[in-house]
Structure formats: structure tokens, C-alpha cells
TrEMBL record:
Name recorded for this polypeptide: Heterokaryon incompatibility domain-containing protein
Record-linked InterPro entries: HET
Coiled coil residues, start to end: none
Pfam families: HET
Source organism: Hyaloscypha bicolor E
Heterokaryon incompatibility domain ranges (all copies): 3-121
Amino acid sequence: FYNLPTVFKDAIVFTMKLGFDFILIDALCIIQDSHSDWTREASRMHKVYKNGALNISALAAASDPETASLYVAKESAVPAFMADALWLNDVRTYCVIPEDSHFRSSIDTAELNQRGWVFQERFLSPRTLSFGAQLFWECAHGESCEEFPQRLPPAVRSF
């Protein structure tokens, strides 16, 4: 355990704190330099992702997995907010985002999410918890983050 990269140790401890008994870390379960092992295991991963309880995504680990942590320092951001606007006797509620959406910039364009196997992992998993500048949640029922814990407003949704 002590020789594992910090991001793996963080994920193991986090998984235990959630009350799960098992964690699959693909970099540890698939022999990285073995084409035959990768081919065999990769052909089964869609079942693993589809049947897993929770996918944990360490966005910061994409660039340097050996030294990255699951937890990253929070970026200071102007929070988004909801505002009602009246235009020609029609009141509508709009999501006002002073800066670019953290969801799009942190999730959709994240280096980690540009990899093919992560695409499969992200979209087949019933739910994904991504650790980045914020904590992000994706499931079949919606997307949320620390800025919008209930649900991302329609203007912010990525897909």
C-alpha cells in the first residue's frame, strides 16, 4: 500500500470510507506492458464499467499519475447564480455564469477525458464522481457539482 502512487491510496481510502469492499484500479489490474493481457482485459472492461457501483475519476492524475492526488486545491471562482429576467411581460429564469462553466472546462475538456478508454468508462458507468477543481457528479438522472449541488441548470449541461 505504501509504495502505491498517492492517487491510488487516496482512491482506496475514499472507497473504504464510502463503505465499499472492493475497488478496481485498471492500471493495477491490467498488466501495462503486456499486449495480450491488455487485449484480454480490455474486451471485458465494458462489463466492469457497466456493473460497477461508482466510477471515481481523478482528473489531476492525467498529467502526472505518480505524484498527483485524488484531491486538488480548489480554484477561486466567481460562483454561478440563477437570475429572473423580465422581457416583454415574459419572466424567465437564466443561469448566469460570470466565468466559463467549471463543468465544461473541468470535465469535458479534461486531459483525462480525452482518452478512449476513459470515454468508455465515463459513459458506461452508472455514476461517476470526478475530483477536480470541484467535485463533479454524473449519472443517468443528471449532472451536478459543488456550484450546483441539486443539478446543473440546462444552460450548463454538457450533453
